[in-house]
Amino acid sequence: MKKLSLITTLVIAMALLLIGSVAAQTFPDAGTAVTNAVLQNQGTTVATVVVTYYDNAGTVQGTENKTIQPRAVIEVKSDAAPLPSGFQGAAVVSSDQPLASVVSIKNDNVAGSAGNTTQAAYNGTSNPDTTISFPSVWRFSGIVSRVTIQNTESTTASVTVKFADRDGNALGTCTPSLNGFGSITYDMRTPPTCAGWGDAVADGSITATSANLLAGASTAAWSNRAGGYQALTSVDAGTVLYAPSHFRFKANASDAEYTLFSAINIQNTDPVNAAPIKAEYFTRGDTSGVPVKTINITVPAGSAIGLNTKNGASVAASAFNALGTSWDGSVKITSLNSIPIVGTGITTWGTSGYAGMYTLASASTASDTIFVPAQYRRVVSGSWAQWSAINLQNIGGSTVAAANLTVTYVDTNGNTVATFTGANLPGSLATGAAFGLNTRNGGDLSSSSFNGLGQSFIGGILIEGPPGSQLVAVANIIYSNRASVYNGVGQ
Protein backbone atom coordinates (compact mmCIF):
# COMPACT_ATOMS: atom_id res chain seq x y z
CA MET A 1 0.00 0.00 0.00
CA LYS A 2 1.23 3.50 -0.74
CA LYS A 3 1.85 5.47 2.44
CA LEU A 4 1.68 9.23 2.07
CA SER A 5 0.08 12.45 2.99
CA LEU A 6 -0.63 15.69 1.05
CA ILE A 7 -0.36 19.71 0.83
CA THR A 8 -1.72 21.63 -2.25
CA THR A 9 -2.01 25.47 -5.20
CA LEU A 10 -5.51 26.61 -8.92
CA VAL A 11 -3.85 25.74 -8.99
CA ILE A 12 -4.21 24.34 -5.35
CA ALA A 13 -1.01 23.31 -3.50
CA MET A 14 -1.05 20.33 -1.15
CA ALA A 15 1.92 18.95 0.78
CA LEU A 16 1.84 15.18 1.03
CA LEU A 17 3.29 14.33 4.40
CA LEU A 18 4.65 10.84 4.93
CA ILE A 19 4.53 9.77 8.55
CA GLY A 20 7.08 7.07 9.19
CA SER A 21 8.04 5.05 12.22
CA VAL A 22 9.19 6.82 15.37
CA ALA A 23 12.86 7.82 15.41
CA ALA A 24 13.36 7.63 19.16
CA GLN A 25 11.53 5.91 21.99
CA THR A 26 10.96 9.19 23.84
CA PHE A 27 8.54 10.53 21.22
CA PRO A 28 5.01 9.42 20.29
CA ASP A 29 4.72 6.83 17.53
CA ALA A 30 2.94 8.53 14.62
CA GLY A 31 2.45 5.28 12.73
CA THR A 32 2.18 5.21 8.94
CA ALA A 33 -0.09 7.48 6.92
CA VAL A 34 -2.33 7.36 3.87
CA THR A 35 -3.53 10.74 2.62
CA ASN A 36 -6.62 11.57 0.59
CA ALA A 37 -7.75 14.93 -0.78
CA VAL A 38 -11.43 15.95 -0.71
CA LEU A 39 -12.24 18.54 -3.40
CA GLN A 40 -15.44 20.57 -3.77
CA ASN A 41 -16.32 22.53 -6.91
CA GLN A 42 -17.07 26.14 -5.97
CA GLY A 43 -17.93 27.03 -9.56
CA THR A 44 -21.20 26.99 -11.49
CA THR A 45 -20.04 24.64 -14.27
CA VAL A 46 -18.33 21.25 -14.33
CA ALA A 47 -14.71 21.46 -13.15
CA THR A 48 -11.97 19.75 -15.16
CA VAL A 49 -9.22 18.84 -12.71
CA VAL A 50 -5.68 17.54 -13.04
CA VAL A 51 -3.84 16.24 -9.97
CA THR A 52 -0.06 16.11 -10.39
CA TYR A 53 2.07 14.30 -7.80
CA TYR A 54 5.68 15.35 -7.18
CA ASP A 55 8.30 13.64 -5.07
CA ASN A 56 10.48 15.67 -2.71
CA ALA A 57 12.91 16.41 -5.55
CA GLY A 58 10.10 17.91 -7.66
CA THR A 59 9.97 15.03 -10.14
CA VAL A 60 6.50 14.09 -11.45
CA GLN A 61 5.50 10.69 -10.11
CA GLY A 62 1.97 10.47 -11.46
CA THR A 63 -1.10 12.39 -12.66
CA GLU A 64 -4.85 11.93 -12.42
CA ASN A 65 -7.71 13.55 -14.34
CA LYS A 66 -11.04 14.21 -12.62
CA THR A 67 -14.31 16.05 -13.29
CA ILE A 68 -16.48 17.55 -10.54
CA GLN A 69 -20.08 18.69 -10.91
CA PRO A 70 -21.00 22.16 -9.54
CA ARG A 71 -21.08 22.14 -5.70
CA ALA A 72 -20.20 18.43 -5.78
CA VAL A 73 -17.52 16.68 -3.74
CA ILE A 74 -15.00 14.05 -4.82
CA GLU A 75 -12.30 12.19 -2.92
CA VAL A 76 -8.90 11.70 -4.54
CA LYS A 77 -7.39 8.64 -2.89
CA SER A 78 -3.62 8.55 -2.86
CA ASP A 79 -3.47 4.81 -2.32
CA ALA A 80 -5.44 4.38 -5.56
CA ALA A 81 -3.36 6.89 -7.53
CA PRO A 82 -0.72 5.85 -10.12
CA LEU A 83 2.14 6.30 -7.67
CA PRO A 84 5.17 4.20 -6.74
CA SER A 85 5.02 2.24 -3.51
CA GLY A 86 6.23 4.30 -0.55
CA PHE A 87 5.66 7.63 -2.33
CA GLN A 88 6.32 10.74 -0.28
CA GLY A 89 5.97 14.23 -1.70
CA ALA A 90 3.43 16.86 -2.67
CA ALA A 91 0.60 17.47 -5.11
CA VAL A 92 -0.66 20.34 -7.22
CA VAL A 93 -4.33 20.39 -8.21
CA SER A 94 -5.08 22.40 -11.35
CA SER A 95 -8.67 23.27 -12.23
CA ASP A 96 -10.65 25.49 -14.60
CA GLN A 97 -13.09 26.18 -11.72
CA PRO A 98 -12.35 27.36 -8.16
CA LEU A 99 -12.07 24.49 -5.69
CA ALA A 100 -12.23 24.07 -1.94
CA SER A 101 -9.94 21.36 -0.63
CA VAL A 102 -9.29 19.35 2.51
CA VAL A 103 -6.43 16.90 2.98
CA SER A 104 -7.37 13.96 5.20
CA ILE A 105 -4.63 11.87 6.82
CA LYS A 106 -5.29 8.45 8.33
CA ASN A 107 -2.46 7.14 10.51
CA ASP A 108 -2.37 3.38 11.12
CA ASN A 109 -0.30 1.26 13.52
CA VAL A 110 -0.44 3.85 16.32
CA ALA A 111 -0.15 1.65 19.38
CA GLY A 112 -1.42 4.17 21.94
CA SER A 113 -4.64 5.12 20.13
CA ALA A 114 -8.11 3.64 19.98
CA GLY A 115 -8.12 1.01 17.26
CA ASN A 116 -4.43 1.76 16.57
CA THR A 117 -5.60 4.62 14.31
CA THR A 118 -5.46 8.41 14.43
CA GLN A 119 -6.74 11.09 12.05
CA ALA A 120 -5.65 14.56 10.97
CA ALA A 121 -6.78 17.08 8.35
CA TYR A 122 -5.76 20.42 6.87
CA ASN A 123 -6.77 22.63 3.95
CA GLY A 124 -4.93 22.86 0.66
CA THR A 125 -4.16 26.42 -0.35
CA SER A 126 -4.90 28.43 -3.47
CA ASN A 127 -2.94 31.34 -1.96
CA PRO A 128 0.73 30.35 -1.66
CA ASP A 129 2.98 33.11 -0.36
CA THR A 130 6.61 34.18 -0.13
CA THR A 131 6.36 33.94 3.68
CA ILE A 132 4.63 31.07 5.48
CA SER A 133 4.28 30.55 9.23
CA PHE A 134 3.85 27.60 11.57
CA PRO A 135 2.68 28.81 15.03
CA SER A 136 2.35 25.31 16.53
CA VAL A 137 5.57 23.30 16.55
CA TRP A 138 6.43 20.77 19.26
CA ARG A 139 9.23 18.44 20.26
CA PHE A 140 8.82 16.73 23.60
CA SER A 141 7.76 13.38 25.01
CA GLY A 142 4.03 14.03 24.77
CA ILE A 143 3.76 15.55 21.29
CA VAL A 144 5.99 15.98 18.25
CA SER A 145 5.59 17.82 14.93
CA ARG A 146 6.50 17.30 11.29
CA VAL A 147 6.62 20.43 9.12
CA THR A 148 6.68 20.34 5.31
CA ILE A 149 7.53 23.30 3.07
CA GLN A 150 6.61 23.13 -0.63
CA ASN A 151 7.92 25.16 -3.58
CA THR A 152 4.83 25.85 -5.71
CA GLU A 153 6.78 27.21 -8.69
CA SER A 154 8.70 25.45 -11.48
CA THR A 155 11.95 27.33 -10.75
CA THR A 156 14.39 26.47 -7.95
CA ALA A 157 13.59 28.18 -4.65
CA SER A 158 16.16 29.43 -2.14
CA VAL A 159 14.37 29.24 1.20
CA THR A 160 15.24 30.71 4.60
CA VAL A 161 13.70 28.77 7.49
CA LYS A 162 13.86 30.38 10.96
CA PHE A 163 13.16 28.50 14.18
CA ALA A 164 12.12 30.23 17.45
CA ASP A 165 11.11 29.11 20.94
CA ARG A 166 8.12 30.32 22.96
CA ASP A 167 10.23 32.90 24.78
CA GLY A 168 11.06 34.70 21.56
CA ASN A 169 14.59 33.38 21.27
CA ALA A 170 15.91 32.80 17.75
CA LEU A 171 17.15 29.20 17.72
CA GLY A 172 18.65 28.75 14.28
CA THR A 173 18.25 29.25 10.54
CA CYS A 174 18.25 26.64 7.76
CA THR A 175 18.65 27.58 4.08
CA PRO A 176 17.43 24.69 1.91
CA SER A 177 17.25 24.89 -1.88
CA LEU A 178 14.07 23.34 -3.29
CA ASN A 179 13.75 22.20 -6.89
CA GLY A 180 10.70 23.32 -8.81
CA PHE A 181 7.63 21.80 -7.08
CA GLY A 182 9.98 20.12 -4.62
CA SER A 183 9.50 19.99 -0.86
CA ILE A 184 11.37 19.47 2.39
CA THR A 185 10.14 18.02 5.68
CA TYR A 186 11.51 18.80 9.14
CA ASP A 187 10.80 15.93 11.51
CA MET A 188 11.13 17.46 14.96
CA ARG A 189 12.12 14.11 16.44
CA THR A 190 15.46 14.69 14.77
CA PRO A 191 15.68 18.38 13.79
CA PRO A 192 18.74 19.35 11.72
CA THR A 193 21.66 21.04 13.44
CA CYS A 194 20.92 24.31 11.62
CA ALA A 195 17.54 24.52 13.42
CA GLY A 196 19.25 25.04 16.78
CA TRP A 197 16.39 23.07 18.36
CA GLY A 198 18.01 21.07 21.16
CA ASP A 199 16.51 18.75 23.74
CA ALA A 200 15.80 21.70 26.05
CA VAL A 201 13.37 23.29 23.53
CA ALA A 202 9.87 21.86 23.87
CA ASP A 203 7.67 24.08 21.70
CA GLY A 204 7.96 27.07 19.41
CA SER A 205 7.36 28.24 15.85
CA ILE A 206 8.82 28.21 12.34
CA THR A 207 8.81 30.87 9.61
CA ALA A 208 9.92 30.21 6.01
CA THR A 209 10.61 32.90 3.41
CA SER A 210 11.61 32.82 -0.28
CA ALA A 211 11.39 34.82 -3.49
CA ASN A 212 9.26 31.90 -4.73
CA LEU A 213 5.71 31.20 -3.62
CA LEU A 214 5.59 28.58 -0.87
CA ALA A 215 2.92 26.33 0.62
CA GLY A 216 3.16 24.00 3.57
CA ALA A 217 1.53 21.86 6.21
CA SER A 218 2.31 20.59 9.68
CA THR A 219 1.15 17.49 11.51
CA ALA A 220 1.37 16.72 15.21
CA ALA A 221 1.44 13.29 16.83
CA TRP A 222 0.42 12.68 20.42
CA SER A 223 0.59 9.19 21.90
CA ASN A 224 -3.10 8.61 21.17
CA ARG A 225 -4.20 11.27 18.68
CA ALA A 226 -3.06 13.49 15.80
CA GLY A 227 -3.71 16.89 14.24
CA GLY A 228 -2.71 18.94 11.24
CA TYR A 229 -2.92 22.45 9.81
CA GLN A 230 -1.88 24.27 6.65
CA ALA A 231 0.95 26.81 6.60
CA LEU A 232 -0.32 30.29 7.38
CA THR A 233 0.17 33.12 4.89
CA SER A 234 -0.52 36.87 4.68
CA VAL A 235 -4.16 36.02 3.90
CA ASP A 236 -4.43 34.45 7.37
CA ALA A 237 -2.72 37.39 9.10
CA GLY A 238 -4.61 40.22 10.71
CA THR A 239 -4.76 42.52 13.69
CA VAL A 240 -7.89 40.66 14.80
CA LEU A 241 -8.27 36.86 14.68
CA TYR A 242 -11.20 34.62 15.57
CA ALA A 243 -11.55 31.09 16.93
CA PRO A 244 -15.13 30.03 16.08
CA SER A 245 -14.89 26.73 17.95
CA HIS A 246 -13.66 26.68 21.56
CA PHE A 247 -14.43 24.52 24.62
CA ARG A 248 -13.85 23.90 28.33
CA PHE A 249 -16.33 21.18 29.09
CA LYS A 250 -16.70 18.22 31.44
CA ALA A 251 -19.64 15.83 31.39
CA ASN A 252 -19.56 16.10 35.20
CA ALA A 253 -17.72 18.88 37.05
CA SER A 254 -16.04 16.28 39.30
CA ASP A 255 -14.55 14.33 36.37
CA ALA A 256 -10.75 14.12 36.30
CA GLU A 257 -10.54 14.72 32.55
CA TYR A 258 -12.23 17.26 30.28
CA THR A 259 -14.63 15.91 27.70
CA LEU A 260 -13.59 18.77 25.41
CA PHE A 261 -10.99 21.50 25.79
CA SER A 262 -9.28 23.93 23.44
CA ALA A 263 -6.12 25.91 22.86
CA ILE A 264 -4.91 28.67 20.59
CA ASN A 265 -1.35 29.40 19.49
CA ILE A 266 -0.67 32.98 18.35
CA GLN A 267 2.43 33.89 16.30
CA ASN A 268 3.83 37.41 15.94
CA THR A 269 4.74 38.05 12.29
CA ASP A 270 7.03 40.98 13.17
CA PRO A 271 10.64 39.79 13.59
CA VAL A 272 11.65 42.88 15.61
CA ASN A 273 8.77 44.18 17.76
CA ALA A 274 6.76 42.42 20.44
CA ALA A 275 2.97 42.24 19.98
CA PRO A 276 0.73 42.75 23.04
CA ILE A 277 -2.58 40.98 22.44
CA LYS A 278 -6.00 40.69 24.07
CA ALA A 279 -7.93 37.38 23.95
CA GLU A 280 -11.66 37.69 24.69
CA TYR A 281 -13.76 34.58 25.39
CA PHE A 282 -17.45 34.77 24.43
CA THR A 283 -20.08 32.23 25.50
CA ARG A 284 -22.11 30.63 22.71
CA GLY A 285 -25.61 32.02 22.53
CA ASP A 286 -24.78 35.16 24.53
CA THR A 287 -25.44 38.15 22.28
CA SER A 288 -24.53 40.78 24.89
CA GLY A 289 -21.11 41.27 23.33
CA VAL A 290 -19.50 41.06 26.79
CA PRO A 291 -16.70 38.47 27.14
CA VAL A 292 -16.80 36.11 30.10
CA LYS A 293 -13.00 36.19 30.27
CA THR A 294 -10.25 38.48 28.89
CA ILE A 295 -6.55 37.61 28.89
CA ASN A 296 -3.81 40.09 28.07
CA ILE A 297 -0.41 38.72 27.07
CA THR A 298 2.53 39.76 24.92
CA VAL A 299 3.79 37.67 21.99
CA PRO A 300 7.58 38.04 21.58
CA ALA A 301 8.91 39.22 18.23
CA GLY A 302 8.92 36.45 15.63
CA SER A 303 7.67 33.93 18.19
CA ALA A 304 4.43 32.41 19.47
CA ILE A 305 2.48 31.90 22.71
CA GLY A 306 -0.22 29.44 23.72
CA LEU A 307 -3.48 29.74 25.65
CA ASN A 308 -5.04 26.45 26.75
CA THR A 309 -8.38 26.24 28.58
CA LYS A 310 -7.21 23.11 30.46
CA ASN A 311 -3.60 23.76 31.48
CA GLY A 312 -3.13 27.46 30.72
CA ALA A 313 -0.05 27.00 28.47
CA SER A 314 1.62 30.45 28.55
CA VAL A 315 -0.52 31.60 31.50
CA ALA A 316 -1.60 29.92 34.73
CA ALA A 317 -4.23 27.19 34.39
CA SER A 318 -6.36 29.06 36.95
CA ALA A 319 -6.71 31.93 34.46
CA PHE A 320 -9.52 29.96 32.82
CA ASN A 321 -11.49 29.11 35.97
CA ALA A 322 -13.96 31.88 35.10
CA LEU A 323 -15.14 29.75 32.16
CA GLY A 324 -16.28 26.96 34.46
CA THR A 325 -16.45 23.37 33.27
CA SER A 326 -19.45 23.51 30.97
CA TRP A 327 -18.42 26.26 28.58
CA ASP A 328 -18.28 26.45 24.83
CA GLY A 329 -18.01 29.52 22.69
CA SER A 330 -15.60 31.53 20.60
CA VAL A 331 -12.50 33.68 21.03
CA LYS A 332 -11.57 37.07 19.58
CA ILE A 333 -7.84 37.89 19.59
CA THR A 334 -6.79 41.51 19.05
CA SER A 335 -3.27 42.79 18.40
CA LEU A 336 -3.16 45.93 20.54
CA ASN A 337 -0.40 47.70 18.61
CA SER A 338 -1.67 46.64 15.17
CA ILE A 339 1.13 44.15 14.47
CA PRO A 340 -0.29 41.40 12.21
CA ILE A 341 -0.64 38.05 13.96
CA VAL A 342 -1.51 34.53 12.81
CA GLY A 343 -2.70 31.56 14.79
CA THR A 344 -4.05 28.06 15.07
CA GLY A 345 -6.88 26.60 17.13
CA ILE A 346 -6.70 23.15 18.70
CA THR A 347 -9.67 21.04 19.77
CA THR A 348 -9.07 18.06 22.07
CA TRP A 349 -11.63 15.41 22.96
CA GLY A 350 -9.94 14.63 26.28
CA THR A 351 -11.88 11.59 27.42
CA SER A 352 -11.88 10.07 23.92
CA GLY A 353 -8.26 10.82 23.04
CA TYR A 354 -8.94 12.68 19.78
CA ALA A 355 -7.69 16.05 18.55
CA GLY A 356 -7.80 18.43 15.60
CA MET A 357 -6.30 21.74 14.50
CA TYR A 358 -7.46 24.64 12.33
CA THR A 359 -6.38 28.12 11.23
CA LEU A 360 -7.72 31.08 13.18
CA ALA A 361 -9.86 33.28 10.95
CA SER A 362 -8.94 36.78 9.83
CA ALA A 363 -11.12 39.33 8.01
CA SER A 364 -9.37 38.29 4.76
CA THR A 365 -10.60 34.70 5.11
CA ALA A 366 -14.22 35.63 5.89
CA SER A 367 -16.85 35.48 3.14
CA ASP A 368 -20.59 35.61 2.52
CA THR A 369 -20.25 32.20 0.80
CA ILE A 370 -18.44 29.26 2.42
CA PHE A 371 -17.82 25.73 1.17
CA VAL A 372 -17.24 22.85 3.58
CA PRO A 373 -15.92 19.96 1.45
CA ALA A 374 -16.09 16.96 3.82
CA GLN A 375 -19.27 16.14 5.75
CA TYR A 376 -20.62 12.75 6.82
CA ARG A 377 -23.49 10.93 8.53
CA ARG A 378 -22.79 7.20 8.42
CA VAL A 379 -24.27 4.43 10.52
CA VAL A 380 -22.91 0.93 9.91
CA SER A 381 -24.58 -2.16 11.40
CA GLY A 382 -26.49 -0.01 13.85
CA SER A 383 -23.42 1.84 15.14
CA TRP A 384 -22.22 5.35 14.37
CA ALA A 385 -19.17 5.10 12.13
CA GLN A 386 -18.67 8.73 11.04
CA TRP A 387 -20.35 12.08 11.53
CA SER A 388 -19.55 15.79 11.22
CA ALA A 389 -20.10 19.18 12.76
CA ILE A 390 -19.61 22.81 11.80
CA ASN A 391 -19.30 25.91 13.96
CA LEU A 392 -20.36 29.00 12.02
CA GLN A 393 -19.42 32.47 13.25
CA ASN A 394 -20.30 35.99 12.11
CA ILE A 395 -17.24 38.23 12.39
CA GLY A 396 -18.85 41.14 10.51
CA GLY A 397 -20.12 44.38 11.94
CA SER A 398 -23.86 43.69 11.68
CA THR A 399 -26.27 40.87 12.52
CA VAL A 400 -26.86 38.16 9.91
CA ALA A 401 -30.58 37.37 10.12
CA ALA A 402 -31.54 33.70 10.00
CA ALA A 403 -33.95 34.54 7.19
CA ASN A 404 -30.98 35.66 5.07
CA LEU A 405 -28.76 32.68 5.87
CA THR A 406 -28.92 29.28 4.14
CA VAL A 407 -26.96 26.12 4.95
CA THR A 408 -27.27 23.48 2.23
CA TYR A 409 -25.98 19.90 2.48
CA VAL A 410 -25.04 18.43 -0.92
CA ASP A 411 -24.04 14.91 -1.91
CA THR A 412 -21.09 13.79 -4.02
CA ASN A 413 -23.01 14.68 -7.19
CA GLY A 414 -23.88 18.18 -6.00
CA ASN A 415 -27.53 17.35 -5.33
CA THR A 416 -29.25 19.09 -2.41
CA VAL A 417 -30.01 16.65 0.40
CA ALA A 418 -31.04 19.06 3.18
CA THR A 419 -31.49 22.82 3.53
CA PHE A 420 -31.58 24.91 6.71
CA THR A 421 -32.70 28.53 6.63
CA GLY A 422 -34.82 30.94 8.68
CA ALA A 423 -36.68 29.19 11.48
CA ASN A 424 -34.88 25.92 10.69
CA LEU A 425 -31.60 27.43 11.91
CA PRO A 426 -30.67 27.93 15.59
CA GLY A 427 -31.21 31.68 15.12
CA SER A 428 -29.71 34.85 13.75
CA LEU A 429 -26.00 35.53 14.13
CA ALA A 430 -25.22 38.76 15.96
CA THR A 431 -21.78 40.31 15.55
CA GLY A 432 -19.26 37.82 16.96
CA ALA A 433 -21.92 35.16 17.59
CA ALA A 434 -21.66 31.53 16.51
CA PHE A 435 -23.78 28.40 16.39
CA GLY A 436 -23.11 24.73 15.73
CA LEU A 437 -24.68 22.07 13.51
CA ASN A 438 -23.89 18.39 14.11
CA THR A 439 -25.14 15.61 11.83
CA ARG A 440 -25.36 13.15 14.75
CA ASN A 441 -26.62 15.09 17.78
CA GLY A 442 -27.90 18.21 16.03
CA GLY A 443 -25.54 20.66 17.74
CA ASP A 444 -27.71 23.70 18.45
CA LEU A 445 -30.59 21.95 16.66
CA SER A 446 -32.41 18.74 17.57
CA SER A 447 -30.74 15.51 16.47
CA SER A 448 -33.81 14.66 14.36
CA SER A 449 -33.15 17.74 12.21
CA PHE A 450 -30.57 15.70 10.29
CA ASN A 451 -32.60 12.53 9.78
CA GLY A 452 -33.16 13.60 6.17
CA LEU A 453 -29.49 12.95 5.46
CA GLY A 454 -30.07 9.26 6.06
CA GLN A 455 -27.45 6.90 7.44
CA SER A 456 -24.94 6.81 4.58
CA PHE A 457 -24.45 10.48 3.73
CA ILE A 458 -21.13 11.60 2.21
CA GLY A 459 -20.92 15.10 0.80
CA GLY A 460 -20.30 18.74 1.66
CA ILE A 461 -21.94 22.00 2.66
CA LEU A 462 -22.66 25.32 0.96
CA ILE A 463 -23.23 28.25 3.36
CA GLU A 464 -24.73 31.41 1.87
CA GLY A 465 -25.18 34.65 3.79
CA PRO A 466 -26.34 38.08 2.60
CA PRO A 467 -23.96 39.88 0.21
CA GLY A 468 -21.07 41.46 2.06
CA SER A 469 -21.51 39.44 5.25
CA GLN A 470 -18.38 38.07 6.92
CA LEU A 471 -18.80 34.44 7.90
CA VAL A 472 -16.18 31.90 8.97
CA ALA A 473 -16.59 28.21 9.73
CA VAL A 474 -14.67 25.38 11.36
CA ALA A 475 -15.61 21.78 10.62
CA ASN A 476 -15.09 18.57 12.61
CA ILE A 477 -15.02 15.03 11.23
CA ILE A 478 -15.64 12.47 13.98
CA TYR A 479 -15.29 8.70 13.69
CA SER A 480 -16.00 6.00 16.26
CA ASN A 481 -12.32 6.05 17.30
CA ARG A 482 -10.73 9.31 16.01
CA ALA A 483 -11.46 12.87 14.83
CA SER A 484 -10.06 15.77 12.79
CA VAL A 485 -10.73 19.48 12.28
CA TYR A 486 -10.38 21.83 9.28
CA ASN A 487 -11.48 25.24 8.01
CA GLY A 488 -14.45 26.06 5.82
CA VAL A 489 -13.31 27.73 2.58
CA GLY A 490 -14.66 31.13 1.58
CA GLN A 491 -15.37 31.99 -2.04
Topology:
Elements: E1 6-8, E2 12-16, E3 32-41, E4 47-55, E5 60-68, E6 73-77, E7 89-95, E8 99-108, E9 117-123, E10 129-140, E11 143-151, E12 157-165, E13 170-174, E14 177-178, E15 183-187, E16 203-222, E17 226-230, E18 240-249, E19 260-268, E20 275-283, E21 293-299, E22 304-308, E23 312-313, E24 326-335, E25 341-349, E26 354-359, E27 369-380, E28 383-394, E29 406-411, E30 416-421, E31 434-438, E32 456-464, E33 471-479, E34 483-487, E35 489-490
Antiparallel strand pairs: 1-2, 2-7, 3-6, 3-8, 4-5, 4-7, 8-9, 10-11, 10-16, 11-15, 11-16, 12-13, 12-14, 12-16, 16-17, 18-19, 18-24, 19-22, 19-25, 20-21, 20-24, 22-23, 25-26, 27-28, 27-32, 27-35, 28-31, 28-33, 29-30, 29-32, 33-34
Low-confidence stretches: 1-11, 17-25
Helix coverage percent of residues? Answer: under 10%
Q: What profile does the largest beta sheet have?
A: 9 strands, antiparallel
Mean pLDDT score: 92
Derived from helix and strand composition plus strand pairing, the structural class reads: mainly beta
